[in-house]
Amino acid sequence: MTGYQLFSIMVLFQLGTTVIFGFEAGAGRDAWITAAGSALLGSVLIAGYAGITRLTGYVSLVQWFRRGFGPWLGVPLAWLYPLLFIYDAARILTDLEFLVPLTLLPATPPWFFLPAILAVALYLMFSGVEVLGRIAGVLLPLLVVFSLLEAVLLIASKSVHTEYFLPILGEGWGRVFAGIWPLGITQTYGESIEMAVFWHLLNKKGRLPAVGIAATLSAGMIIVLFDALGIAAMGEHLFMEMIFPTFTILNLSSVAGFLENLNALGAMYFLCTSFVKMAVHLIAAALCIQELTAAANSGAAVWLSAGSAFFVSLTMADNFSEHLKAGLEQLPHVLWVPMFLVLPAAAGAAVWFGMRFRKAAYR
Known about the structure:
Layout: H1 3-15, H2 18-21, H3 31-55, H4 61-103, H5 110-127, H6 129-156, H7 174-186, H8 208-234, H9 236-241, H10 245-250, E1 254-255, E2 259-260, H11 263-293, H12 299-314, H13 320-362
Antiparallel strand pairs: 1-2
Helix pairs in contact: 1-6, 1-8, 1-11, 3-7, 3-8, 3-13, 4-5, 4-11, 4-12, 4-13, 5-11, 5-12, 6-8, 6-11, 11-12
């Protein structure tokens, strides 16, 4: 895997469905500050993950825990991660289950398009990470160009009002900090721990920290751009209330009476980024299961991961409000902070102290 391929996968993965929902809209007109702060702290987190990968000799995520805690404790802890990845993939499928009928295909039942999306993901899982990297490398420049085009069209249509940002930090730092911790850091940047499953495939491993940090900051800038456009086009109150602010601001674009209602851009944003994120979830889960079971090939792990994610998605939530509440209020505290911050830090510390102890023993 080349550095650019890894960079592209990471940027699209970190964008995920964030470009549609609006990142930390609860911070109101200061959401862009929350997004910027989360990206900066997220880059520190990614640097930490890269440091653990380097410390362990560029092994996979599973081996972090084996080397840190030994096989008796490390293997059970490592099993938690493919289970979490499958659950996160199911959440993406559930996002699509609610999003697609509301935005693109109002009369299409989820049982029709979800298997189709999952079938494409299965093809990608069997093709491997390198194929995913090539696809991401093609999609990323297109998304960047269309994001900039959206910004230009909004400005040209005089839908951007900079006064909506004022007063900056008028409510103080409280809601900014509340948005950054824990959701802002864990929601997209903490989830990037999945990249450690195949970071060892990077052809120039010494470039890992630079690629990871650059991808995180790039994704952060795009998220800040979308938040800023949403605030400037709709104002604080509408931005906070809208479920899909990206689609709303696309409807505000009107240039010369013919460039209007660019919903196709929004559809491309969330379909491409959510698909890549779901594919990474499933590929990471399958590779972890294959490694933990010492299977000769990943075929069974691929079917198990995809099938489990599809089944979980069907039974995850009865309505969209329940689904959003779980993702925004419960998961960060119950799962993401322990899995993305506490356990990796403990594994890295255990490996470091073990290396120090062995060096001292040989003296």
